[in-house]
Design goal:
7-stranded parallel β-sheet, alpha/beta, globular, 6 helices, 7 strands
Length: 236
């Protein structure tokens, strides 16, 4: 699985775990995020300071040839619909959808070159809340719903050489969701809601992401794949 990979938001959480899993098999990994956080920079793993909510996004030093990309930035803004301001919707939309659009546009040229010999792959992230209708999720579910629509549209447009897929997780133990795992009691209560008896770990999502970026998933595109402990389909 050699190649050049570009990860947006790869310095913590799921993005960081994806970088760790890709590093042994990649030629180069470029990580774009606001800060280096927990990322270990090496000759192979290169960090670039970047804010995907900035009006003019410039991704400096992108590889000329790219074989896989993942857009990992996200938000968890849980409030009642009555409590949400229009500005809240705009912020979630900017981070989750517009940032992904900017990232895809910036990387397209490199992906096109990377697909010259084999299919290149792009990966986005949604949430279980798009299909499950969860209360307090209006803003993030709306923004991620746009991401799912974008996934299918771009997958059709970029076929057959560039594959585009999306992962839709349930609650995952990342820094972004740390408030839901503040105590052992809250952790246990959350885990009990899932058919598999636990919430997600970054490695669960990163393993699925690595697969979708690899040649092993070469006949998969335009899919929104739920990695959610069974919550979206099972009742136990």
């Amino acid at each position: 699985m050699n190649g050049n990979f570009v990860i947006a938001g790869g310095s913590k959480g799921i993005g960081l775990e994806l970088v760790k899993q890709l590093e042994p098999v990649a030629d180069r990994i470029d990580v774009y995020s606001r800060s280096v956080d927990e990322l270990v920079v090496t000759d192979k793993v290169i960090h670039h300071v970047c804010d995907f909510t900035s009006e003019e996004l410039v991704l400096d030093e992108l590889p000329d040839v790219i074989h896989g990309i993942a857009y990992c930035p996200g938000s968890i803004n849980l409030r009642s619909f009555r409590g949400l301001k229009i500005s809240d919707f705009r912020v979630d939309y900017e981070v989750n959808f517009i940032g992904a659009v900017k990232f895809l546009q910036a990387c397209f040229g490199g992906l096109k070159k990377g697909s010259a010999t084999a299919s290149a792959s792009a990966l986005l992230f949604s949430t279980i809340a798009v299909t499950q209708g969860l209360p307090m999720h209006a803003s993030i579910a709306a923004a991620k719903g746009a991401v799912e629509g974008l996934t299918r549209s771009i997958a059709a447009e970029w076929a057959p050489k560039i594959r585009v897929n999306c992962l839709a997780p349930a609650l995952t133990d990342t820094p972004l969701a740390s408030k839901f795992f503040a105590t052992e009691e809250s952790r246990t209560a959350m885990a009990s809601k899932y058919p598999l008896g636990r919430t997600g770990e970054p490695s669960d999502l990163a393993s699925a992401a690595k697969f979708l970026l690899s040649p092993e998933s070469g006949w998969i595109t335009g899919q929104v794949i739920h990695v959610d402990g069974g919550m979206s389909t099972l009742r136990t």
